[in-house]
């Protein structure tokens, strides 16, 4: 839970956000889970409107329908894929379409800047560093599990590298921008408009709504590909997608770094193993637990010390 005392309603000057005294003169504790940086960013984002959020969602859905039902079905990606030997594959090409279409909508209609989408240059190097660290840990875990039977993965092909680039600059990046940075922030701000709701309930609602939409957005393509052949298959996949969205939201919220969320999302889809069998999936829960522990430890370190008597 985030300390509501540190989260002013939209429009409040963030420079005034400092720990205030609690009841009976006691200093307020730092925000739980170490989300102060995230909340400062959240409250500094430019709010749009419910109409614009709906327009952006419809536009993104239309882009996905075009990509899956036309672009891929007609194999329009093959010429560039072939010329580059797989380095510029389908997901990366669709990523370009996303930035040309949805990016233009964000910029020219929503008047949103890089900061409003959590794409701050100051966060880039740390995001890359933490992503690399997670990848190294995944290799070490598999190495320890393999023991004497360790098998090294074959050299990465251009298609493997292209698949990872397609995640970093395509699928993973666009989904993190849209479902984590854009939807969470806009839903949060719109729920809090006029100071009607406190920060914590608004943030929880924003997380739930945005990640439900993340799951639902995947449904048409899965239905088209025959993956939803029963009600059980539908709810199991939707539940898995919703939970995956919450995990990715947690990585973003706890680190206040969208680039890190993009990195772990890309590794989940394209592990790029050095040791055969190494996969980010085994680190999903431990990583979130570690980030929560780290945040709680930082909160404890920042907690005001009360003098005896």
Structural class: mainly alpha
- The total count of helices amounts to 12
Q: State the helical fraction.
A: 55-70%
Query: What percent strand?
Result: under 5%
- Number of DSSP E strands: 0
Shape: globular
The arrangement of helices and strands along the chain is HHHHHHHHHHHH
Low-confidence stretches: 1-34
Largest sheet: none
Rg, nearest Å: 21 Å
Task: Report, as a whole number of angstroms, the end-to-end distance.
Answer: 30 Å
Give the domain tally. 1
* Overall mean confidence score, pLDDT: 85
Give a written overview of the molecule.
This protein is mainly α and 309 residues long. It has one domain (47-293). It is built from twelve helices and no strands. α2 (50-71) runs antiparallel to α4.
Feature tags:
309 residues, disordered N terminus, mainly alpha
Secondary structure elements and pairings:
Elements: H1 36-44, H2 50-71, H3 78-83, H4 90-109, H5 124-146, H6 158-168, H7 171-191, H8 199-217, H9 219-224, H10 231-255, H11 258-269, H12 284-302
Helix pairs in contact: 2-4, 4-6, 5-11, 7-8, 7-11, 8-10, 10-11, 10-12
